[in-house]
Design a protein that fits this description.
By secondary structure, the protein is of the alpha/beta class. Helices cover about 30% and strands about 20% of the residues. α3 packs across α4, α7 runs parallel beside α8 and α12 crosses α13. The longest helix has 18 residues. The structure holds N-(aminocarbonyl)-beta-alanine and zinc ion (ZN). The site of N-(aminocarbonyl)-beta-alanine has 8 residues, from loops.
Length: about 450
């Protein structure tokens, strides 16, 4: 059904060439024109606001199953509502087959993909998925090829951590690097040296250190650095294009820089929590609420990440959104059994824009690259150019400067009952969000019927 024209009027539009006050004309879900002149249509007043391309968060975990029947707090519906409410119009989650365990073989990737795609149908923002290759998967190149051709997904993740569940040993990892290279598929890599982390974790537990701080101590900076170094060497050896998720240390990103100098195709992702929070959180009584992997680092590491962002070394800032309920994170449980992950999909756009521009003097264009453009160019999803350009999908977010808004679990859309950014000034309110030209958030409120998200095939 053809929809009428919409004019986003007079906002400071973050365009590929710079930020300019413009009208954006939207017709039938696409950006038709970016003009200085008025036109006919339904007008959304954006004066005094920043207009950005709708955010792309390339790393979230909705409805993530853990041992014991526990799932991350958000399913595809609540997680995607939170995404839209926060100005993110596209998310990328994961297809993770069950790993080999107790003599049983790993789940078939195609079967896992069918199941995950059906779970994702509830999403109200647009979405794609990355495959994952897990422990014990056989014939990985064949499986990836068959699934890529069937599902139009062209990225796959592996874990060098989590050796007791999905993590790969070096030989398995090299096989996946080789398979991905052969298919020209992007390989996402979780870089922590799993065997060393497990050795340290066991040591802490044996010495009676069950507390959340021991989680961070058992995942040291060098465990990330060495895993990044190894991933870059494997990529170099096999000719694979890789994307290293959630780099949390200067040493880790330093390895990326060295690899790029050798010509390795390596992209780098930072995570919102590593940019905004630090290990001081592990000194408080609710330290367990901040357990994630890699853990929060020192404030010096946090500042170093900002410097690398400023220098344009990273490709994107994701959230790794994977919150749980307060009771699931806390209690008498040893740190090894506490589910990993925190929220962020709703907070990313406002908090990154605010902190990066007000705190570090970034231009809105630079922030927009981290929120959208970088992920768009790495993962190449249909219609999502990641920029405000004629003919792109009309995915827009209008940010209104707001010095009073604070992040709080009371008002967030996640189903989790706490927010790791509680009390942080947001700097902006999310005034309006358009997903393919449909108004899904208006005056800060999510539409009663925001419509459904679409699965986005990768263009490769
Ligand atoms: O702590 C984290 N990152 N939780 C989500 C699962 C993962 O490692 O990506
Ligand atoms: Zn993750």
């Amino acid at each position: 059904m053809k929809r009428g024209k919409i004019i986003v009027r007079g906002g400071q539009c973050v365009l590929p060439g710079g930020t300019e006050q413009k009208d954006i004309v939207i017709d039938n879900g696409k950006i038709q024109a970016i003009t200085g002149t008025a036109a006919q249509g339904q007008v959304i007043n954006a004066e005094g606001c920043i207009v950005l391309p709708g955010g792309i968060d390339p790393h979230v975990h909705f409805h993530l199953p853990l041992a014991g029947g526990v799932f991350s707090a958000d399913d595809f519906r609540s997680g995607s509502i939170a995404a839209l409410a926060g100005g993110t119009t596209t998310i990328i989650d994961f297809i993770t087959p069950r790993p080999a365990r107790d003599g049983k073989t790993a789940q078939d990737l195609e079967e896992a993909a069918e199941q995950r795609l059906s779970e994702a149908e509830k999403a109200v923002c647009d979405y794609s998925l990355h495959f994952s290759a897990v422990k014990g998967m056989k014939h990985i190149a064949d499986q990836l090829k068959r699934c890529r051709d069937r599902f139009s997904i062209n990225s796959c993740k592996i874990y060098l951590a989590y050796q007791d569940s999905i993590g790969l040993d070096d030989t398995e990892a090299m096989n996946v690097f080789q398979a991905a290279a052969g298919l020209n598929m992007k390989l996402l890599v979780h870089c922590e040296w799993g065997e060393a982390v497990d050795f340290l974790r066991n040591g802490y537990i044996e010495r009676g250190r069950n507390d959340a701080r021991a989680h961070a101590l058992s995942r040291p900076v060098w465990a990330e650095q060495l895993a990044v170094q190894k991933a870059c060497r494997m990529a170099e050896m096999c000719g694979t294009e890789i994307y290293i998720v959630h780099i949390s240390t200067a040493e880790g990103i330093g390895e990326v820089i060295k690899a790029r100098q050798r010509g390795v195709r390596v992209h780098a992702e930072a995570c919102l929590h590593h940019l905004l929070l630090d290990e001081e959180k592990y000194k408080n009584k609710d330290a367990a609420l901040y357990i994630m992997s890699p853990p929060l680092r020192s404030s010096g590491q946090k500042e170093a990440l900002w410097q690398y962002l400023e220098a344009g070394i990273f490709d994107s800032v994701s959230t790794d959104h994977c919150p749980f309920m307060r009771t699931e994170k806390t209690g008498e449980t040893p740190f090894t059994l506490i589910p990993n992950g925190v929220n962020g999909v709703e907070e990313r756009v406002a908090l990154l824009m605010h902190t990066a521009t007000a705190g570090y003097g970034f231009t809105p264009e630079k922030v927009s690259r981290y929120l959208t453009g970088g992920a768009a160019s790495v993962f190449r999803l249909r219609g999502k150019s990641g920029a405000i350009t004629a003919d792109s999908d009309a995915d827009l977010v209008i940010l209104k400067p707001d010095s009073t808004r604070m992040i709080t679990a009371q008002h967030h859309h996640s189903q989790s009952d706490y927010n790791c950014y509680e009390g942080t000034p947001a700097g902006f309110s999310i005034q309006t969000v358009l997903r393919r030209g449909e108004i899904t958030v208006s005056e800060g409120l999510i539409a009663e019927n925001p419509g459904m998200g679409e699965f986005l095939p990768a263009e490769y």
